[in-house]
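retry 2 of 3: previous attempt timed out while embedding 5-O-phosphono-beta-D-ribofuranosylamine. Reduced batch size to 1 and resubmitted. Inputs unchanged:
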Amino acid sequence: MDAGFALPRDGTEEDPVRLGVMISGGGSGLAALLRHQLKQPCCHQTVLVISNRSDAGGLRHAKENLVQHSVVPIPPGQDPEARRLQHEREVHQLLVASNVELVVLSGYMRILSPWFVERWKGRLVNIHPSLLPSFPGAHAHRDVLAAGVEITGCTVHLVDEGVDTGPILAQQSVEVTSDDTEDTLQERVKQVEHELYPKTLDLLCSGRITL
Ligand code: GRF
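retry 2 succeeded.
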């Protein structure tokens, strides 16, 4: 295994890997993960949901499923770097306090600093709505449509210090149709994400992924 990445321990149904899920928006991915964890014996369990936005619709899924949740807004101040670090320190403290073992980014719309990544490297995963390394960044669907490609998809990857650059754990393709808009494409890719992410977490949390 790559020395820089320390993967989570093997979880079991009796002692599941404790997940902290980080969101910024609607949280359809979080809802799919919670459904997956309820449906079957599972080697991972969501114990904490953190949003950087108080208006994130996804918080309702945490509430409905009685999962502990916190809003950690970006603190006020002049210096963007100081604000970012303070925010990440707060997030890190909450994760540690809840004994989180794997951080799952699910529509979390902030880039994490090297300070945070270093602390969670190998235990920090993201899903990105394109076939990385193609179309990284915040506007994947727009960029896919502008490029006129016929196949897109989604990628689950470990997070490193770059933007959407960490080791790829799983990918699945999705066809782009000639009448697709950003919205229709996003919707179709999300359907695939909702299957792929929980299944990849099953593999990662049971020792069936090695780097
Ligand atoms: C997903 O498409 C994910 O790949 C991207 O943001 C979207 C989140 O959607 N990073 P939701 O908030 O889970 O509905």
